[in-house]
Amino acid sequence: MSRIILGVFLLSTQFIFAQHLSKNQFKVKGNCEMCKERIENTAKKAGAKTATYSIDLQTLTLETDHTISTDDILKKVAEAGHDNEKFKSDNSAYEALPGCCHYERNLQPKSVENHEHHSKKENEFYVKGNCESCKARIEKAAKDAGADSAEWNAEKQLVTLNFDPKKTSSDKILKKIADVGHDNEKYKSSDSTYKNLPACCLYDREILFGEANPKVHAEEGTSEHSEHNDHNATNENHGNHEKQIEGVTVTSSKAATSLNKKEAGLVFTIDKKELLKAACCNLSESFETNATVDVSFSNAVTGTKQLKMLGLDQKYTSLTKELLPEIRGLASAYGLNFIPGRWIENIQLTKGGSTVTNGYESITGQINTELLKNAEKPETSLNLFSDFNGRAEANITNVSPINDKWSQTFLLHGNGTFGDTDMNEDGFLDRPKGTQLNAAYLLNYNDLEKSGLGSHFGINFIKDERTSGQIGFDKKIPQDKQSLYGVGIDISRFQVWNKTGYVFKGKPYQSLGWMNQYTYHQQDSFFGLRNYSGKQQTYYSNLIFESILGNTNHKYKAGASFMYDGYDEMYLTNNFKRNEIVPGAFAEYTLTGLKYTLVAGARVDFHNLAGTQFTPRLNFKYDFTPQTILRLSAGRGFRTANVFAESQQYFASNRSIQILQNGGNIYGLKPEIAWNYGASLQQEFKLFGRKSTVVADFFRTDFQDQVMIDLDRSPQQLTFYNLDGKSFANSFQTQWDFTPFRNFEVRLAYKYYDVQADYLDGIREVPFMAKHRGFVNLAYSTNKNNNGGFWSFDTTLNLVGKQRLPNTSSNPEEFQLPTYSESYAILNAQISRNFNKKIRAYVGGENLTSYYQKNAIVDVKNPFGNYFDGGMVYAPIMKANFYVGLDVTF
User: Fold this and answer.
1) 70-79 vs 33-45: helix axis angle to the nearest 10?
2) Where is the segment annotated Disordered (predicted)?
């Protein structure tokens, strides 16, 4: 009997003791099994009853009794070298860890004791939330649990409690707050309760306590309900934590390249930090470390660069600046050179159909460039660049706040190519000589928090002059007065734009935006004895209203747009004039569920020459888990082809132009129409204790009335006609991003393209498109020293498979091209040194494999003969090229 009593006594003692144990979870940084063992042993030695560390979740679960302080345990964990949500390890303790244990400290929160924005008091506790609904819920729960008063601050993510300790406790109050759905520093809400919160209240559970919530405005703690609003007042845009109203963007933190998990579409953001990994003198060089966009030379005489996406030419991608139409029409051939790399704040790249609010021309996707316009204090930067073959450029940028509402940006760029570059020794320049002067001024007004008004104004002027052709050609002498073949291209461009938005008072989800832009573009050019000139005037206007239906789970946008294009072109002796007038209307609905987002939109445009066009688009995202995301998209687009401006890479040849008209109103041709369908799967997982992401996507584009550019009918002819049959492009890409060890980033990609079309003489592959492409990007940087200095090493390898070449079998044998090109590889690399936060120097090389197309020009010795052709380019035309640069910030 005594044994039974003793057993009951022992069990009762253990039960009573267990009732005084509390279980809490904290964020702690670590990498590997060694970290796990160190963290758990340290916690137990500091008094924890149990300690369980999850490498994948980066969490430490502690079970302690009431006599042990979790703060004391976490302090010991920090002393052992592991940053956590309350204490940061000393540098010496961190550096003493084995190499495999060196986690990424730049992702860590500030110490709670030394938080740079706020010192937490005894009666203050971290509680997560987003908006006014969260505030009401948190404060009510606290009072229900016995608090005399409770005040929750969204910006600081803190609740201040006043209560009588004899009646209740902070533990009881925080437990009640967790029960209604809000994680806090002592208790975590159940998944089911969290998921039942309204969509606007679904805070980010991964943000550590003490860090700012990006969904909350910095000044007044008001919530940002809109996750993505291209034209209106508030948004969380493309993976960057920012608020934006018609181009006025305030950014808190960005990754170099990010894929936004919250977007229904496949949207990548390329930050200016990513652009610094390569020379990036202009937009055409901004995608060197990006696997989605292919950039290549398209002409051996003019050095023209064009990009391709999803296996199709640049003209099928909507290229915008500040979400306004940019590289289109007469700017198609050389527009990539008009946006200097050092002017770019970030680039948003959307694969597949984009939103209908941005227009009807997007078929394969959209590339939007945002210019520099954000700075907390005045900042002036100088960039100097030169390569070893006579090209130099300078950039001066100044971003400065005028007062608490106004800010301005000055952007100045100048470049010149002065050397005669002829690496293949064929007597022709490998790239044009000439100069460009480019200046812009931006003025921003931001009073979103008070009056709800914001506005952005911009003006830009460009003067670009280029000369190419045979070495020794004199542009001052008329072509018919000299024997050397020459090319001259002079471009003047002027733009002015404004974007203004208003957020309705008390309704952060409701806004009105209006954007307007005027563009004047003039080109005067000649290609040997062939002249081409053109003028384009464009006026664009877009009005968008955004609101909700009942709650923020149901959002909608509606609006109207207007586009005017006036073209006046002269080719040889033929004059082509037309005015395109396109009023349109659109609507878009966004449905947000716990695991899915549906964006359905449609627009109707009344084109005076192309007729009424209906453009539906659909994007759907489903989160199987937070780490596994499926996206589906489908949409229609249409455009009018500018056959001369978009085909200038073939002007430096003997080819005569023939247009087979079929009753259309644009050069006698009908508008191009295409349907694009896509699916992608994004999977995140831990590798070596670090984040790793794999994205696989497939897109198909089907054309109707596509304007075919037929290079095969005759090597002496360039023929345009509308498609009669099938034309499609299948694109498959898989990309893997991972970090094998600290500061070392790896990006691997493989792309497969199947692009075919029905030409007049049968279906065949579209020329100059490699079926197989491989991509490797490696980036490593050293740790920053006390002055903020560090080294960076970046290299990119592109593997390009064979490409079908145009049929030249009717030429004499010595001027015939093979049916397929060779496969080749291009290696680029750069080393940069940041001496401190203000001075950076870099040196790099392009095409370090020195692979180049040896016979890039057909019949190069007889440029005025029947067989001369400078447009048959499938590979680089320059060998290895080295460059140096300097960045200074004042």
Assistant:
1) 130
2) 218-243
